[in-house]
Amino acid sequence: MTVQAKKHLGQHFLTDKNTARKIVDALEMTDGLDAVVEVGPGMGVLSDFLIERKKNTWFIDIDKESIQYLHEKYPALKDRLILHDFLALPLSNLVGDQPVAIIGNFPYNISSQILFKILDERQQVNQVVGMFQKEVAQRCIAQPGSKEYGILSVLLQAYYDMKYLFTVKAGAFNPPPKVLSGVIRLSRNHVEHLDCDEKLFKQVVKAGFNQRRKTLRNALSSLINKDRMNESRFLDLRAERLSVADFVELTNEITESRITNE
């Protein structure tokens, strides 16, 4: 039995075993981190090497054909093979409250959604090793001042240390995608909570980059009290110039101006 790659699911099955081993080897299973969830295992090319590591691993795929194939390939895994939409399944339903690592050759059409879900569950997700469209991978690790720097860069780097590991050519997949792929690792940093209103922080970051050609004075017009923030050193800059720490400081300035206004 083989699995037919489905365009509507964004499936491009990795076939190069050397690349698969490199991805799995990039997982750094530190003390206390024993649970792994593979997202979109497909035909199991990463799964082969994950199983060798003898960790507590779950495999989740929305594709019924893939899960059926994996049941035939790994009959001993049984209830570790989960037919479900990763985006709609709380990690605690799989692994309880223990810390977890996420790994996968992520479908490119939902890769940003996967990253936002990881952010939502960041208190449990200690590490991520994933393959993305190279453009998305570069966006995740981008630094202030670059054209790739954006919403994902700031939100991810607020809570994770990021590293670009290597590039994968289209020929490593079946069917080959029309783009290069990039593998990155996210390692949870020691920031439990940002030193600001985290909900407002997220609003500020999104609003700033949604109108990235405008200065923050204009891009954030619905969030700020301009009269009370005239002296802010950030408002005449564009969002791409601000670091994570700058966005935290700006968020606190906005919070303070609202309190003063009341």
UniProtKB/TrEMBL annotation:
Major location (coarse): cytoplasm
Broad EC category: transferase
Residues the record lists as binding S-adenosyl-L-methionine: 12, 14, 40, 61, 85, 105
GO MF terms held by the record: 16S rRNA (adenine(1518)-N(6)/adenine(1519)-N(6))-dimethyltransferase activity
PROSITE patterns assigned to the protein according to its UniProt record, in alphabetical order: SAM_RNA_A_N6_MT
Coiled coil: none
Keywords recorded for this protein, A-Z: Cytoplasm, Methyltransferase, RNA-binding, rRNA processing, S-adenosyl-L-methionine, Transferase
SMART domains given in the database record: rADc (SM00650)
Enzyme Commission number(s) from the entry: 2.1.1.182
Residue ranges of every copy of the Ribosomal RNA adenine methylase transferase N-terminal domain listed in the record: 19-190
Enzymatic reactions: adenosine(1518)/adenosine(1519) in 16S rRNA + 4 S-adenosyl-L-methionine = N(6)-dimethyladenosine(1518)/N(6)-dimethyladenosine(1519) in 16S rRNA + 4 S-adenosyl-L-homocysteine + 4 H(+)
InterPro entries in UniProt: KsgA/Erm, rRNA_Ade_diMease-like_C, rRNA_Ade_methylase_Trfase_N, rRNA_adenine_dimethylase, SAM-dependent_MTases_sf
Lineage: superkingdom: Bacteria
Family the entry assigns: Belongs to the class I-like SAM-binding methyltransferase superfamily. rRNA adenine N(6)-methyltransferase family. RsmA subfamily.
Protein role: Specifically dimethylates two adjacent adenosines (A1518 and A1519) in the loop of a conserved hairpin near the 3'-end of 16S rRNA in the 30S particle. May play a critical role in biogenesis of 30S subunits.
Entry protein name: Ribosomal RNA small subunit methyltransferase A
